[in-house]
Amino acid sequence: ETHRFGRARDAVSTITRLIREGEVVVQEFVPEIVADGEWSLVFIDRQLSHAVKKSPGSGDFRVQMELGGSAEAATAPAALVDEARAILGKVDGDLLYARVDLVTRAQGVMLMELELIEPHLFLVSAAGSSRRFAEAIVRRVEVTSGT
To answer: How far apart are CA 83 and CA 105, in angstroms?
Structure first.
């Protein structure tokens, strides 16, 4: 149920229907996603584990793989990593993992999503990331169980 509308009045009936069915998120269309893609930076224990660059399928604007988008392992530019770290610095508490989705715009870096309960961490995209994630889980289990 992801839609793109050219004019607000075109969106009224669809958004009205969606509101009747449940929760709705409305956000600005970001053309840079189509032109340049979107970055997902995955942190485990607040340390950068890996990054992927997501791109929409041909003729589409959505980057989700199930909708024709793609995600390729890539090295995120240092400025994006710094921005993601600054964003995570504003989150209190112990974070097993976080996914910071960013887009570079003419005005600067834009946070698209900060996923703290996201099941898709692109672990298959980076060697060793599954091991890092498992080790972080084990550390928490050991602390909780006192071993």
So the answer is: 13
